[in-house]
Amino acid sequence: MEYTILIIGGNGLVGKTITRILKSRNPNLTVFTGGRKGGKTDNDLRIDVTDPSTFQVISDKKIQFIILSVNDKSDHVLRFAIENGIDYLDITKPTPDLVKAYDFAVQSEINSRIVFSSGWMGGIVPALVNAVAHNTDDIQDVRLFVYYSVKDLAGESSAHFMAENVAVPFHHYKNNQAVPIRHFLNAETFDFSFGIGKRRAYHFDVPDLYIINRIERVPNVNVKMTYNSKFITWLLGAFQYVRIFNILSLKERKMIFGSSGNGDQSVFEILVKGQSGFRKLSLRSSKGQAELTALSAVLHTEELLRNSHEHTVYFSHQLHHPLSLLAQLSAYETINIHTS
Asked: In which domain of life is the source organism classified (predicted)?
């Protein structure tokens, strides 16, 4: 397969993992790494997303596909990809930035495939929702429960997002109405699979709230998460309840959310409600969230390379047949999925 791919943010945790998985599965691909400091080889390019003047090397190297694994708040890379007809896959945007970028893209003239894949674990949740539903037109309620371990390897972007937004209200959806809420409030008990057991889970903002309601037209969407430490989960809820996050500096909030371990499992569970009742999908990545996010990005990339897709704007789940994506995830050696 002859294709030239650039991974911007390729020196970060997720970027390096994408490179490893992509090249191991597709050894004939030419893969460049883009970062602010460049590198020691010809395949290491100096690209700063805040400085479009560094993008000339993208044209010089005849890049055909950009994977963005660093948050480009000003959408400079998106604009460059659209203007130059380059395929583009973004896995990094928090909800407000995603909505802004998507609105810009759909109003632009598109001569490539522009794909937003910033949902939980690389944007696979909406496809898994459709995979387990008896009838996608009948879905009335989707609930996502996330188990996050502070022992897991974590990149800077997710920690910085939480530090910047933990005191900012976001929305979940009830009867197609956007309901303002805050992180780590309104706990409920959920019985997690894979031996985790019952945990208190709190409201949590991920782009899937917007995508499943606004794009997939599901009227009720809710996301809640818990930490592997029950004490940390309780403490964050207490901090939010008494509004301590509002008085902490950004530096102090980064210290709270910036921890990263040596690796642990990542688990999420999806409950889908239709007229016939609830169906549940449970997924465990034994190598953690970075591995699963990177694998999802690779599966989206392979789908774009191997199959014909029109030049337009997509959310990544729209590229796949849901059952095909489910099968590909299930076949990966460190992922365990079961439905009920």
From this structure: Bacteria
pLDDT tens digits along 131-167: 999 788 899 999 999 999 888 876 666 667 778 888 8
DSSP 3-state of 161: helix
* pTM of structure: 0.94
Count of the separate structural domains present in the chain: 2
What pLDDT does residue 158 have?
A: 67
Query: 193 in helix, strand or coil?
Result: coil
- Looking at the chain, the whole-number percentage of residues with pLDDT higher than 90 is 82
Residues 6+ positions from 60 with CB-CB distance below 8 Å: none
- What's the CATH number where 226 sits? 3.30.360.10
Helices 289-306 and 322-331: crossing angle in degrees, nearest 10, is: 130
Asked whether residue 44 is domain-assigned, the answer is yes
CA atoms within 13 A on the CB side of 53: 0
| Beta partners for residue 332, in sequence order | none
Domain residue limits at 90:
4-121+290-322
Both tokens assigned to 95: 């909800």
And the tokens for 98? 């995603």
How far apart, in whole angstroms, are the C-alpha atoms of residue 100 and residue 2?
A: 33
Asked whether residue 334 is assigned to any structural domain, the reply reads: no
Q: Which residues pair with 8 in a beta bridge?
A: 34, 68
Token pair 């583009």 is at which residue? 88
The first and second tokens of residue 250, run together, are: 């950004």
Q: What is the distance between the alpha carbons of residues 240 and 237, in angstroms, rounded to a whole number?
A: 5
| pLDDT tens digit sequence for 221-252 | 999 999 999 998 999 999 999 999 999 998 88
Selection from 252, 174, 206, 223 nearest residue 97 by Cα: 206
Task: Give 113-134 pLDDT, tens digit per residue.
Answer: 999 999 999 999 999 999 999 7
What six digits make up the tokens of 3? Answer: 């294709």
Exposed/middle/buried for 7, CB within 10 Å: 0-12, 13-18, 19+?
buried
Pairwise CA distance, residues 47 & 36, whole Å: 5
